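User: Hi! I have a protein structure encoded as tokens and I'd like to know what sequence might fold into it. I'm fairly new to this, so please keep things simple.
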């Protein structure tokens, strides 16, 4: 499902080269739930961006869903991303579109047949408990509702892999627990999950295999 072998990502900051990831190697099997834990700046977001090819590695090998990610052509990048759902800390909803339209927009971009869009949107909204908020705009949502809408957008495409980048980082404990429960339900349905968090307590509470990054290095692989 996911395999990284001796991956480095180095950014140039003026004349200085700053490693964001250093010699990272691990595998994630199909159907696993893996927590990616580390403090802010540890390299979690960079690692996730490499998996859906928003960034390219400086060195090393990356395979996701049987794709050699660094070697992909433009058309193949689009194919890879059709099978990956991504959720960010700030939800990234389109402000001028309703919840329904935010979820439907992604399906249209993916070329989903028109007759399938509405049923798939409402299936996703039911899964996150937002059916009644389909016509609400992002500004009318609580933070927890916005994050659930982002999850609906990610799962409407029926992804094989869900990448969650600090999805609970801006939420209170109650809303965070709701989001975690939804992600676990998605995982129980057969989707592989990589869940990034800086919260040590949350990482422990998830009781899943945990990869720990410190300063761009993978220092622990437990569980």
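Assistant: Happy to help. Inverse folding works backwards from shape to sequence: for each of the 223 positions I chose a residue that suits the local structure. Here it is:
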């Amino acid at each position: 499902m996911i395999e990284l072998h001796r991956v480095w990502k180095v950014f140039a900051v003026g004349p200085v080269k700053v490693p964001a990831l250093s010699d990272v190697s691990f595998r994630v099997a199909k159907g696993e739930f893996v927590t990616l834990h580390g403090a802010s700046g540890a390299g979690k977001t960079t690692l996730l961006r490499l998996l859906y090819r928003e960034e390219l590695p400086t060195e090393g090998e990356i395979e996701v869903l049987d794709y050699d990610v660094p070697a992909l052509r433009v058309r193949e990048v689009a194919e890879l991303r059709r099978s990956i759902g991504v959720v960010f800390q700030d939800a990234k909803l389109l402000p001028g579109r309703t919840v329904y339209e935010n979820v439907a927009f992604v399906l249209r971009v993916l070329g989903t047949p028109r007759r399938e869009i509405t049923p798939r949107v409402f299936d996703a909204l039911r899964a996150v408990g937002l059916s009644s908020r389909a016509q609400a705009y992002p500004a009318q949502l609580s933070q927890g509702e916005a994050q659930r809408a982002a999850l609906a957008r990610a799962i409407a495409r029926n992804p094989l892999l869900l990448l969650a980048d600090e999805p609970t980082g801006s939420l209170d404990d109650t809303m965070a627990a709701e989001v975690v429960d939804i992600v676990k339900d998605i995982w129980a349905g057969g989707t592989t999950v990589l869940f990034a968090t800086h919260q040590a307590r949350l990482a422990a509470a998830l009781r899943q295999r945990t990869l720990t990054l410190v300063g761009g290095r993978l220092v622990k692989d437990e569980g």
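A useful reference point when you look it over: The chain has two domains: 1-83+159-223, 93-158. Feel free to ask if any position seems puzzling.
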